[in-house]
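Quick question: what would this complex look like in 3D?
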Amino acid sequence: MKKKIVNYSKARRKYLKSLRNNKILIIVLQFTVLLAFLGIWELLAQTEVIDPFFFSSPSRIAVTIVDLFQNGNLLLHMWTSLYETIIGFVLATFIGFVIAIILWWSERLRKVLEPYLIILNSLPKIALGPMIIFWVGSGTGATIVMCILICVIITTISMLNAFISCDNDKILLMKSMHAKKYQILFKLIIPNALPEFATALKINVGMSWVGTIMGEYLSSKAGLGYLINYGSQLLKLDIVMASIVILCLLASGMYFLVSPLEKKYKK
Amino acid sequence: MEKLLEFNNVKYFYQTKESEVCALNGVNFTVEKESFSSLVGPSGCGKTTILSLTAGLLTPSSGKILLDNKPVEQNDERIGYMFQRDHLFEWRSIWQNIILGLEIKKMKKDEKKLALAEDLLKKYDLYNFKNKKPRQLSGGMRQRVALIRTLVLEPALLLLDEPFSALDFQTRLKVCDDVYEIIKSEKKTALLVTHDISEALSMSDKIIILTKRPAEVKTELELSFPQETPLKKREDKDFGNYFEMIWRNLV
């Protein structure tokens, strides 16, 4: 970027400075909240105001994470969950998007399937858990299917809404230029829905992690959900807390990878 | 003058759940080549229906619509349509917006059309903005881009559906002038729908006044102001009289 040399007025300089200071202050406060939270937690645990066995403590969590790393299986658990989430996320987004296009294309099909979409959307997918294990067996496959089930309906519904809310005059404009239906789809409907697509991606990041953890609770041999389950059954609550912290980091990392897209399209 | 568009006893009924509604009850009028005509009428009288029929977006229930002595077809290619709002696609640059129609008709590589697009941009002071996004342009400029997007397809007849109604008054007067100048200098034929009598007066060679629904043509008014631009026509001494006359016909 070119750096402009400009002589700002005093008032302008003051305004810019206050903007910058405000931004710095917010970041400082954000870190303060985190540090205060960790500090108070650690203090309460050390002085045994809260029972560190049940509530763990930042230091115990840190030690546990290092320990899990050294035993060599934490990376495997992280990778398993991440892999299942990403595959589930990508497949669900893709399938939901394609179904939305098909339903946009045929108004009749859309009307026929509308009640089924509503029913499927209101069904708590976890209820299908046992069936999924019968269908695809336990393990990674079941987790990915759970992930897809959780994300796909909501993706379909939100994308379909975005598609059909396109301004009718814009469609007329395309028609007045002799556009065929596929041209209306690719040149208008899809690009017009990109902001909603970015939002759907953001929501799906959260939802697909829910799917992964739920799937791993049901049946798995590895993954962060497995680790949490394992820890709680052996009453090693430090492992549970450590897994949750790692889960938090992975999920927010994925969220921050996707969220710039939303900013880009919502301009 | 040679006629370009002819409405011959056109009737149009549309269906609602409750009943069948007669929108047009035998409409007759003509639009001459290279002229600027306007349709005015009480709101909801079926002005936009007439434009949709002309563009082939609707089919008449009975009667004939002839363009250059040939019946209008579905989505007729000889027609260019300009809407109330510019409907520029925000994700496309100005240039990409202008060649949208060429893309749709698979004429993106047609040198002649592309040269025409460039010419129009240059002529109407938009060339420097060709790589900008629509949101970086003013309302008036956006409406000019929308007009050029239509003109690039070289339609025989331009339909303007209240294209200035979304603009504030000052911009509107300026854009009226611009659009009028572009249409006249490109020797285009235009049919404007508006509820603004003074806008119709300042731009048209002929005003077609419709009755309320079901619409028929109440009367036609040929105009010839000595002034050249819509803005100047508004200063003519007879402008007020004409206004009065149309107003009386509408109420």
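Answer marked as accepted. Chain A has a mean pLDDT of 90.
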